[in-house]
Structure formats: C-alpha cells, structure tokens
Amino acid sequence: MTTTVHGYPRIGPARELKRAAEAYWAGDIPAAELDAVGARLRRGVWTELRDAGIEEIPSNTFSYYDHVLDTAVLFGAVPERFRAAADGAEGREAELRTYFAMARGTEGVPPLEMTKWFDTNYHYLVPELGPDTRPHLAGGKPLSEYVQARGLGVETRPVLVGPLTFLLLAKAAPGAPEGWRPLDLLDDLLPAYAELLARLKAAGAGVVQLDEPVLATDEGGAETAALRRAYDVLGGAADRPELLVSTYFGAIGPDALEVLKASPVERIGLDLVAGPESVDDLVRVSGLGAKTLVAGVVDGRNVWRTDIPAVLARLTPLLGLAGRVVVGGSCSLLHVPLDLGAETGLDPLLRERLAFARQKLDEIVLIGRALTEGALPEGAGHAPGPVPAAFLDQRVRARLDALGEGRPRAGFEERVAAAGGGRPLPTTTIGSFPQTADVRRARADHRAGRIGTEEYERRMRAEIDRVIALQEDIGLDVLVHGEPERNDMVQYFAERLAGFTTTEHGWVQSYGTRCVRPPILYGDVARPEPITVGWTTYAQSRTDRPVKGMLTGPVTMLAWSFVRTDQPLGATARQVALALRDEIADLERAGIRHVQVDEAALRELLPLRRDRHAAYLEWAIGSFRLATSGTAAGTTVHTHMCYSEFGRIVGAIEALDADVTSVEAARSHMELVDDLAEAGYRRGIGPGVYDIHSPRVPSVEEIEAALRGALRAVDPARLWVNPDCGLKTRDYAQVEPALRNMVEAARRVRADLAG
Ligand code: GLN
Ligand code: ZN
Fold it and tell me: Domains, the chain, ranges and CATH?
C-alpha cells in the first residue's frame, strides 16, 4: 500500500510566491531571483511531502500563475498578440514576459480570459486555440522540475493537465470558423504529449500523471471517443513512463471508466469524496484488473478532519477491485490552506476537528499504514465525533422548523411596476464604490488598534457622505452607501455571524498571486445583532433618494467558505437565510425600501452533472426566498450575479422571485436580454451596461446603444441601468465619468421614449 497526493499548495507558507511575482512585475527583482524563489518553494514542498511519509510525490504542480496557462505555453499555444511582450528581452526574461502577458495583459493587449476551474473558486486562464494553432513541445517546465527534484534526491511523478481536459477547457480563438472546436486539434496535440512523455522517461521518470477532471462533467463524460483515442495513442507510445489518468471533482461515470480500463494506461485515479458513486462504477466494470487504483479518500476541497475509520470501512472492499491501491487526496490540496499549525487563535474544540493540507498528509499516511497493517495504530485516527453541542443553536433550529418554506411574496407584477418609482430606466450601481487608499488604511488602522472605533466610524461616515453626495450629483436614482467597511463580501458577514470563524493565515490561491482566506462555517448560523443596519440607515439619513441595503446571499456565503459537512448544504443555507431575513426586517423597520441580496456564486455551485441541478437549485432558490420573502410589498428586492451564461439557470432566476436582477452583460453584448425574454422572464433586469473589469470609460453613445438593444426585449419600466459589477477595484478617475455617461445615456433614451 502506498500513498500520494495530486498536488499541494504552491504559494508558499508566507505567500512568498505572491511577493516575488509582484516584485518581478514591478521591476524590483530580475527573472533569476523570481526563479530562485520558485526553486526554493518547490524544494520546500517536496521535502515536506517526503518528510510526512508520502511515498509517491508529484512534481510540476508548481506554477508561477496557473497550471492551465503553463500547459498552453508548454504546447506552444501562444496567441500572436502576446509575441510583442518579449520584444527587447531574451532567454528566460523573454519567456516570463510572454507568460505574464498572457496572464495579465499588457498596455493595449488584453490577457487570456479567466474563468473558474470547475466548481471551485480557483480561476484558470482559458487557452485560445484555432485551426492555425500548431501544437508542439515548446517548453521544458515538467522536465526541468523533475530534474530539479531528482537532483535533491526526491523521485517524483510529473503532473500534466491531460489532453482532453486541456482541449475542452480551451476556447476557439477569434476568427476560428463556425463550428470549429479546440478538440479538433486532438490528433495534432497528442504527438507533443508523446514527445514529452518520452523525454520524461529518458530523464528517469517512472510514472506521469495526466489530470482529466473534465471527465467529472457531462461535457467531458460524453467525449468517450476522444478519450479512447487520446489514451490509446499515448498508451501505445513505445517510449513512455507508466501513465496515471486522474479524475476528480466528481464521479467519472461508467462509460469513461470502461474506456480507461480498456486503454493501455496503468493507473486510474478516482475522487471517492466528491464522487462516491465511482465505487459503483468500479463494481459495474468488474474492477480494474491488474491496473492500479489511486483512491482519493481525503477531501482536497474542505478543511474537516477525515473520518478515518469510515474511510477504512469503505476502502477495504475496494482492495480486490484493482491490482494495487494507492491512497491519496480527492484532488490537489491546492484548494485548502497549508497548515493548521499556523492558526493559534482557533477555538480548541474546533481546531481538533480540522485538517489543512499539511495535516491531510498525515491522514493519508495513516490510512495507508492501517491498510497495510490491517488496523489503525493504537490511539490514532479516531473518528471526529458529532458536532459539539456548543456549536449548535436550538433556537435557530426551532425557528426554521416553524417557518417551513416561508410564504411567497404577493403580486410581483405590481412590485415590479413600483420598483423604479414608476420611472422608466431607473439607474443604480451594484453596491461597492472604489476602495481608496484612505478607506483601506482606516480599516487596517482600526483592526490593528491604531485608531479607536469612534475615529474609525467617523472616517467611514465621512466616506459615506462623499459617496452619497457624488451619487446625487451624478443623478443616480437608487443610491448605495458604497461598502467602505467591507474587506470582502463574504468575510465581512462571516465575521459578524455566529457559526462562522475566520483564520489568520488560511490563504488559498484564487488566481495568480491573488489569495483569499475563506471563512470556516462550523456550527449553526445565527445573527447576534444587526450587521448592516447602522451604515445603511446613516446613508439614508443623508439623502432623500432611496438607499439600497446590501447583503451577501446564502449560496455565496457557502460557496466561498469551508462549510460543515455533518448536514446537507441546503440545511446550512437555510440558517444563513434566516439571519439575512432578520437583517432585512431590521432594515425595513429602519425605513429602507430597497435591499439587494448578492448571489455572485449561484452559478459556481451549480453541480458539474446535469442530473444534480434540480436538487441544487431547489435549496439554492429556497434559501434565497427564505431570506427575502418576509419583505413588505413596498420593498424592492434586488439580486446580483457576476456572469451572464444564463442558459441553464434562467428558470431559477425567475424562481428567486426578486424584483430586479442585475447581471454581467457588457461583454456578452446584451444577448442575455434576448435569452431572458425568450425564457419568459418577467421581472426587472439590470443587464450591466459596461464592463467594470476594464479601466476604460465607456462613452454615452455605446451605453445608449446597449440600452436601446435591451429595449428590444424588455419594456422600459423593467429595464434597470447599472454597471456590470461592484466598483471597488476601480478608482474614481474611471468611475465618476463612467457613471455620468451611464446616467446621461439613460436620460437620452428616456427622453426619446417620452417624445
Ligand atoms: N455588492 C457587491 C459589490 O458591489 C457585489 C460584488 C460581487 O458581485 N462580486 O462589491
Ligand atoms: Zn458582480
């Protein structure tokens, strides 16, 4: 019995990679110094894994920005527009400049698109491939990292994104003919993989891992012909290491498993945490024969300690279904923080229930040992036991039982008509205003105790005054307080709700050098006191125009936290919803007539398999309605989502029963409005009229054109005018003219309607 992991956090214990990469971008350190930091971090990971007792150690899990980007560069998929980035540089410097240009763009050259890695909050860069792309082995990263490890005396298994996943995650480059798919490049790409495999073999690699998480999705699972082709070709190559094809984030499904079983690959990795049904699939294909099963049994996505006796009970019957079993994490440990040892402030009762990446290594090693020896060592690996009573709140449970579904709100047609005060094309924003250096400093000073609460609140009120005055001056209709007090839309609420805790060092890579510290939702959720009411009512006291109260919705609170696993997500979401329901009631009592419940992550948590969508949407929608259905008829409920591919969830958006939904649409040119109309969406809609992710100031004319386009499908009373997301990452030099142009565009369109 041996042990392994698919990957490990790569940013460094003190986020060294973030610091080094940012210093390199700023021109403060040369390429060689960045590379030295990279080499040190890799050595640190390999030694940590080896010292923990992990026997099969991966390499090439390190990345300067993103492993999908690495793969694109490795196989020469560098779009023409990035070539100029290397002008005037040579060698490594030129390589790095091109690489980071693809990740971050350069003056006038937009970067690759970035999107979520499956159903995680990690973002990858989307490769752009076209019929002219000539895949070839263009780099040596996996090889040089393998060689580095070998030089340190650590034998590793290089990890690559598999060809099917790489091609299915890529998008057709602009200009590719209609109907052309990146997957059409499969036969051109496979020789490049084969060449790499041969070189790795020549350098001494015994096994190479090819990650195919796309097999956990409906799209990937349906590509059995491509899967067969890929692994027949790679498996048939004369000169190659053993191949491990790893799937994760869900069950592989019997068809894909059958194909892999019949292929020449020697090892198959299954995620038995996110896809426990894979066990049934294994039985259905009558096991893997002589092949090795890499059994992902320790959760790579969550921070709870593994119930080791339960894992052993589940694993033991599998031993007969494969030639050999390797115990591992369910997916790369990239998605959890590095080391619980760094958290000194946690409640000991909670702490003993947690395992971060470093602790998960110990669990894997322990499970491996128990399987080899037939029993757990004395006193080790006991089950975590039930949730301590101190984490539970019987009052919350009783209230939720009594509430049931919550009554639906009455008369949405009248509500929708009333929402804009009867005015066509009402204007508003998504909530946050630019977080200036002053605002950030005030928050940091307050946290560090350098200023007292009174002074902090004075500064926040001054900021709110400024933001309100500016919005009045610009002429917006529904105002916001600007969210200056919030570090992050989830963490802010998590810090103020019982049942959540936050960590000091629990950083997880979100994209590139950006890391987040997801809160831990460990117990019953309750609201000890009002959270937003003070700031919102203060803002309202400064203006005669309506101010919108801003809240983060239950699904998003869960999506961006580590959530307890002892009860279904839906039950936890209801507890968050109840707290929000109370908050909204307090806002209404204080005279607030607009509330917005942001569900930025509604789409992200949508299960990878279609047959699970209905069950997910039921609890997701139910929790939103529970949060918002107590509102009076005169209150307008808004929601906001940060994406525009609504095809799959249009029905769900209608079912949320919000009066107004604002969404990202600037980049999809308002097509979404047609989709919504076609699907029979009848409520208020605020298709973002410009892209806040870009510093560019949109002109009145282009916003006007967008609005006129939207009016093809929506009547003016239901069309809201807003940017496509919060403004906190922009500065006022862009925001002010952009909002002025937006209000002017709405005014012109309104004047036409009246005339
Ligand atoms: N209200 C939040 C803001 O404006 C919404 C952020 C988001 O959707 N990501 O910042
Ligand atoms: Zn958004």
Answer: 2-373 (3.20.20.210), 389-395+428-754 (3.20.20.210)
